[in-house]
Amino acid sequence: MSAKTILVADDETHILHVVSMKLKNAGFNVLTASDGQEALEIALAELPDLLITDYHMPNLSGLELCQRLRQEPSTSNLPAIMLTARGYNLQPEDTQNSGILRMLSKPFSPRQLLTTVNEVLEKLAA
Amino acid sequence: MSVGPIIQANEAAAGKQTRAPAAISASVLETVAARFRITGLAIAVIDRQGGLAYHDATTSQFFNRYAYGLLRSPGAAVGEISKAIAAATPTSNSSEWSFVPGLVISAVPLVDKRQLTGMMLLIGKRDGFTLDEDVLREANRLGLDATWLQSQADELPGWKADALLAQSKLLISTMRDQTRLNASEQEIDSLSTQLSNSYEELSLIYHISGGMKVNRSASDFFRQACLDVREVMSVSAMGAVLCGVGSCRQDPVLYSRSEEPLLSQDDVTRLANELMVQLRDRKDPMLINDVDRNPQFRWLSGKVRQIIAVPLQRKEQVLGCIFGLDKIEGEFDSVDSKLLNSIANESAIYLENAMLFEDVHALMMGVLHSLTSAVDAKDTYTCGHSERVAILSKRLAQQLNLPEAQVERIYMAGILHDVGKIGVPEAVLHKAGKLTTEEFDQMKKHPQIGARILADIKQLEDIIPGVMYHHERFDGKGYPHGLSGLAIPLMGRIICIADCFDAMTSNRTYRRALPLEVALIEVRRCAGTQFDPTLAETFLQVPTEEFRKLLSEYQSRAAQLVAAPANGTSCP
To answer: What is the ipTM, given to two decimal places?
Structure first.
């Protein structure tokens, strides 16, 4: 099986570095985007297997990004993991039909993130 | 032109990285070689003995077979090359080698830690290249066909010495930039690793702080902390011990990663005791990376390789410790002890809070119980009544699946529900016969008196409804306000059932206790009139055995009190 490609979108560079390093070390191909708009363009061009996105981002929020991707035929099934600020809870109705399967609040444990990624991908493969 | 700057960049990188980078890494050389390939130049590195240390395998065949061939086997040029290397110093400028037939070469000294390590060569086809006598001789020696060599050479631009010198300056600055870039990338990787570890720590501390609810038991708290730390620190087992009382007591415990425990309970206890002996004196984290060679812990040899332990302190006093055994990879280091120390500090805050909470809670419960004892002393026939109503109310609240915090408040309201009887004349409370209307009016004031007594205690505000409304009836015929149905606060409706049930099942001066079964039938009968029917139904769902047990406990306690009346309040 070829390595899965994961797109990571966050406007905080250090998060991008930490997450992509953790994922690369685990054998994933990693693409990064530093805002929602860039993430949208990359996702449509590269069709990754999974999206990890921050909620608060300039230009296009993580939620808007997921909703836009949902409307595009080529990415309508792209699963997403959302990172949010601690204590910030998205309502279930917000995440409905957005492809967001899991949410992690910052500061998250990179190990936990990796576990979540593997769980989500395994579940989708099953 | 000096190559100093390249070297400085390297040394700067070396200073920040723990592993020493090669003087110039292969990836830098490849990036640079690819850039110069476009201009028809090739790159090579030779070591101090003149051996070819790097060549660009993807360059054109002319360089690959002829130029690199010559460097591998210099033939007549070997003396000149040795001389050039010998003449180079760490600070010398790049030099031009015109002694290699058909080629122009600019040689830059390579320096690592102020030592000359070799030379970097920028190689071009000499301007006006022809198959002259010297070139043919070398081609023959290398086994290259002359026509083929000419055709390969025709595809490359020719270079003059001065133009090559300019390129070699460019090479040096490109090398310098590329080296710096690589170092920065490595630095970012290393910082990201550190950051990732910090995230891990931070999220662990968040998690542990989140679990620091004071009403949580110490064993729950330490279990969670041990499991979390075990994962983050990647150890085979984490354990804890706490030599206090109450919430400050934790018997030696070890949580192993594998299903098979790393140590037997006896070993865990012995280890915990010995760690405590050591930590009581030193009060600092303890790292043992080789148990076999540690006289104190050699007895663990073969079972455990490494130990890390930090004390749990409160007011300079070592109360306990948390310890980790066997790192899965590598040894325990200062990062681990720092992490474990912050966990210990967090735990100490938990302990401090738990102890304060216990103190305050015990004080408050003591005060509440003495309040009810005062009532019970005055109204002797209700001896233990408040406590039983509290227990019954709590049981009903649990049966209703109310949140634990609310269940506790209902218990407290049960304890205090009759506190207002302090304000009712003893003559009325003690009267054996039927009360007159006037006396009954006085009796009916006790819920409001109780509410007033508690009104000044801010922390008990939320239980006042239980005290105020426990004599309201579902059909609206109760007192003091004649509320009906769900307008009566839940606490009042719950205590009402518990209160009546206990009254029925207790002996009174004017009648014997009703049998349990009869009391239960009575509860059902009064559902919808006196009691909230839903609550009454839920109350009846509690297994009868539980009620029986409660009653027999009460009766045996009453018997004890009767046998030893000197103990305090006597009960009928």
So the answer is: 0.77
Q: Do B189 and A21 touch (CB under 8 A)?
A: yes
| Position B144, amino acid | L
> Does residue A86 belong to the interface with chain B, where contact is any CB pair within 8 Å?
yes
- Least-confidence region, from A31-35, B189-193, B247-251, B364-368: B247-251
Tell me if B182 sits within 8 A of B25, measured CB to CB: yes
CB B232, CB A111: distance < 8 Å: yes
Q: How far is the CA of B376 from the CAs of B14, B444, B569, in angstroms?
A: 81, 17, 8
Residues of chain A with C-beta less than 8 angstroms from the C-beta of B202: 107
Please say whether the beta carbons of B81 and B91 come within 8 A: no
- Assess whether pLDDT exceeds 80 at residue B490: yes
Q: Cβ(B323)–Cβ(B238) under 8 Å?
A: yes
Q: How confident is the model at residue B565 (pLDDT cuts 50, 70, 90)?
A: very low
Cβ–Cβ < 8 Å for B340, B332: no
* Contact indicator for B469, B447 with CB cutoff of 8 Å: yes
User: Which pLDDT value is given to residue B559?
Assistant: 56
The yes-or-no verdict on residue B273 having pLDDT over 70 is yes
Q: Which residue has the tokens 């830059």?
A: B108
Residue B561 has pLDDT above 60, yes or no: no
Provide the 10 A C-beta neighbour count for residue A13.
Answer: 11
Strands A29-33 and A5-9: parallel
